[in-house]
Specification:
The protein contains 10 helices and 8 strands. By secondary structure, the protein is an alpha+beta fold. Helix 2 runs parallel beside helix 5 and helix 4 packs antiparallel against helix 5.
Length: 436
């Protein structure tokens, strides 16, 4: 009975003494909860900043890859331009040499003409009506007649040879002139095309450098924002820890006041402290898990891809992965290195795309236009090849994808899907449609 009274008395003392410090503890607990909520918001923002930094890093990696491709295309085009300039120089030297040959031919033709004129003049001086028959009939004897027959035959054969030589030289002269002029014209057109491509590539270089500068600045901005948020979180964490320490010290003070009265009170107080600590730990774990799940979901969503298969549709979709991820290179797309780096010209891209669908076709516009069956534009189907007159007839080729559009490697964009029913491509489409 006495023991029961002591327990009741101790419980009363515990409640009485503890009630003096409960308001202070509650106030600190509310402050701690508010700080914890602020930290959760800040940590969410930190996670968001981290995601933006990762996203910027990925974009920067893609941009650097594109810069490398454009730089490589610029260097390759420089080589092509240099080679074309050398070919033009050689062709001009050929033309200069040909001009000398032309002058020699003209001199020979003129000399032959003078000989023919001199003979005609001789006949005129002898009366104007002398011909080969008169020469023969004017013989005084049979021997003279035979001699004159031989002379006339020789003169007639010589005249014939002179005329034939003149005609042969004229024909040879015209053939050489046409051949060299065509070669020079083709090289000049190619040079203009290469220079235009190079201009576009250089513009792309400048755009890429600006985009890289902007992206690096944005990344630095995100990193600065993250650092600021981490600093705020660190400051709040210190305050939260200080408040928890004060709460703990207050509880320990209460316990020390009551420890002399009852062991049970001390046990209850320790249990309360452990419970509060457990709740705080649970909140942190839940917040961290939520941030990780959110980041994981975003990454999982951004990595999803589709893969196309089957027949000509495989050729159409093969190049989709290079859209916005390639650069035009004259003569490109014919080596594993070019393909790996997204460097194609128009015919190289078409040949490669169809190789992905199991076709082996030429890698030049001249070869492609005569490879399959030519069909009417009114009968055009996805997968047909379409041709355009750019720097020369049938100078550009692409793969029709439907809806008045085709996919190809253009000098201004690299691999892209563009309309052939409006703008530039409508104006240069020549109506040639080839079905493989």
């Amino acid at each position: 009975m006495l023991k029961k009274k002591l327990v009741i008395l101790n419980t009363t003392l515990l409640l009485g003494l503890g009630s003096f410090s409960i308001p202070a503890i509650n106030a600190n607990a509310e402050t701690s909860a508010s700080i914890s909520s602020q930290r959760t918001d800040i940590q969410d923002k930190i996670s968001d900043a981290e995601y933006k930094i990762i996203e910027a890093q990925e974009k920067l990696a893609d941009l650097n890859a594109q810069i490398n491709r454009v730089d490589k295309a610029v260097e390759e085009n420089k080589k092509q331009i240099k080679q074309t300039e050398e070919d033009i120089k050689t062709t001009k030297e050929e033309i200069a040499s040909l001009k000398k040959e032309i002058k020699d031919l003209q001199d020979r033709i003129e000399q032959r003409n003078e000989i023919l004129k001199e003979r005609a003049r001789t006949f005129q001086e002898n009366g104007g009506s002398v011909d080969y028959i008169d020469v023969l009939l004017g013989a005084a004897s049979f021997k003279e007649f035979v001699d004159r027959v031989g002379a006339v035959a020789t003169i007639m054969e010589a005249d014939k040879d002179l005329i034939e030589s003149n005609e042969a030289d004229k024909k040879d002269l015209e053939t050489k002139q046409t051949s060299v002029e065509d070669k020079l014209s083709s090289l000049t057109d190619m040079q203009l095309d290469l220079k235009e491509m190079q201009k576009q590539n250089l513009d792309k270089q400048a755009e890429n450098e600006k985009a890289k500068t902007d992206l690096v600045a944005k990344q630095q901005e995100n990193e600065a924002a993250k650092a600021k948020l981490e600093k705020e979180d660190s400051s709040l964490a210190a305050k939260e820890e200080e408040i928890k320490k004060q709460i703990k010290e207050k509880k320990e003070e209460n316990l020390n006041n009551l420890i002399s009265t009852t062991t049970q009170a001390t046990s209850n107080s320790n249990s309360e402290s452990a419970s509060a600590s457990s709740n705080d730990s649970s909140k942190k774990s839940s917040s961290s898990s939520s941030v990780k799940k959110s980041t994981s979901a975003v990454k999982s969503s951004s990595s999803s891809q589709q893969k196309a298969t089957g027949g000509k549709s495989a050729a159409i979709t093969a190049g989709y992965k290079y859209i916005g991820n390639s650069t035009y290179k004259f003569g490109g797309g014919r080596t594993a290195s070019d393909v790996a780096n997204g460097l194609f010209d128009c015919s190289g891209f078409v040949s490669w795309a169809y190789s992905q669908a199991g076709y082996s076709i030429p890698a030049s516009t001249d070869g492609l236009k005569n490879y399959g069956k030519q069909v009417s534009f009114s009968d055009i189907q996805p997968g047909d090849l379409v041709f355009f007159d750019t720097y020369k007839k049938d100078g550009h080729v692409g793969i029709y994808v439907g809806g008045g559009k085709f996919i190809g490697s253009q000098s201004s964009t690299g691999v892209a899907v563009v309309s052939m029913t409006s703008g530039y491509w409508k104006g240069v489409f020549n109506g040639r449609v080839v079905r493989l």
